């Protein structure tokens, strides 16, 4: 039985009881028992545990978890203290400095953002070691699409930050009449210079939140 707190148990109950989720669960039982899978099964739903539904101010969508040892811990783009910064996260911190003047931290743990209402959601929640996108076809897309639609429906004045083609494809799931959708290239070194750098998503998010009477996000990680 999954217990998430923060209003998620009731909100996600229809998904966890759905036949499609039960198929994902059976798939994961086999995968975790026969392969190395990230994140650890106990970290799988950390994005929900760390960010209550009613407190969401922003949603950052990643694609699938980091697939090298020690990296993934259930929050998109985040790595725990002591883990070297992946290239995409380095670029996120570079844009953060250019946008808001925040010095890049040495630690890539984004839990502080999650605690302020930033839901750090991957569109696929698991991955085999050394095999990017290896779980992309197992049913997670249905689950996370449903989560995005649920947030759009149940909340107001949330900033959805969509980096890259995979995340941007989710824009039709979001009600743009009551939320802000920010889209740009992915922060990966392969695409960051195609529109991620200079997108100023962090300051634009805070401007929107303040304009709608919401407390801005402290994007620093000190």
What's the topology here?
Layout: H1 8-16, H2 19-34, E1 37-38, H3 46-50, E2 58-62, H4 87-100, H5 111-115, E3 118-122, E4 127-128, H6 140-154, E5 159-163, H7 164-168, E6 180-184, H8 201-211
Parallel strand pairs: 2-3, 2-5, 5-6
Antiparallel strand pairs: 1-4
CA-atom Rg in angstroms? 17 Å
Structural class of the secondary structure composition?
Answer: alpha/beta
Mean pLDDT: 97
The N- to C-terminal Cα distance equals 35 Å
Q: Helical stretch count?
A: 8
What's the overall geometry? globular
SSE arrangement, N to C: HHEHEHHEEHEHEH
The biggest beta sheet, please?
Answer: 4 strands, parallel
Tell me the helix content. 25-40%
- Which strand-content bin applies to the residues? 5-15%
Strand order of the largest sheet: 3-2-5-6
Overview in brief:
It contains eight helices and six strands; from the N terminus they run ααβαβααββαβαβα. With about 220 residues, it is an alpha/beta fold. Strands 3-2-5-6 form a four-stranded parallel beta sheet. The protein has a two-stranded antiparallel sheet with strand order 1-4.
Descriptive report:
The protein is 36% helix and 11% strand. The chain has 222 residues and is α/β, with parallel strands linked by helices. It is globular. β5 (159-163), α7 and β6 form a beta-alpha-beta unit. The strands form 2 sheets. Strands 3-2-5-6 form a 4-stranded parallel β-sheet. The model has no long low-confidence stretch (mean pLDDT 97). The longest helix is centred in the first third of the chain and has 16 residues, at 19-34. The N and C termini lie far apart (35 Å).
């Amino acid at each position: 039985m999954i217990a998430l707190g923060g209003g998620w148990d009731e909100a996600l109950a229809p998904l966890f009881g759905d036949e499609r989720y039960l198929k994902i669960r059976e798939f994961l039982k086999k995968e975790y028992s026969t392969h190395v899978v990230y994140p650890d099964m106990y970290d799988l739903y950390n994005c929900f545990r760390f960010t209550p539904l009613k407190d969401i101010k922003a949603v950052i969508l990643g694609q699938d978890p980091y697939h090298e040892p020690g990296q993934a811990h259930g929050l998109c783009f985040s790595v725990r203290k002591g883990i070297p910064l992946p290239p995409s996260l380095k670029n996120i911190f570079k844009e953060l400095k250019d946008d808001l003047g925040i010095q890049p931290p040495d630690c890539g743990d984004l839990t502080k953002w999650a605690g302020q209402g930033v839901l750090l959601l991957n569109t696929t929640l698991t991955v085999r070691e050394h095999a990017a996108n290896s779980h992309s076809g197992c049913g997670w897309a249905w689950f996370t699409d449903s989560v995005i639609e649920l947030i759009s429906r149940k909340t107001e004045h949330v900033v959805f930050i969509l980096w890259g083609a995979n995340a941007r494809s989710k824009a039709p799931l979001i009600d743009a009449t009551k939320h802000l959708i920010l889209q740009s290239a992915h922060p990966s070194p392969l695409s960051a210079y195609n529109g991620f750098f200079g997108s100023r998503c962090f300051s634009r998010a805070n401007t929107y939140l303040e304009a709608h009477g919401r407390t801005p996000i402290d994007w620093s990680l000190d």
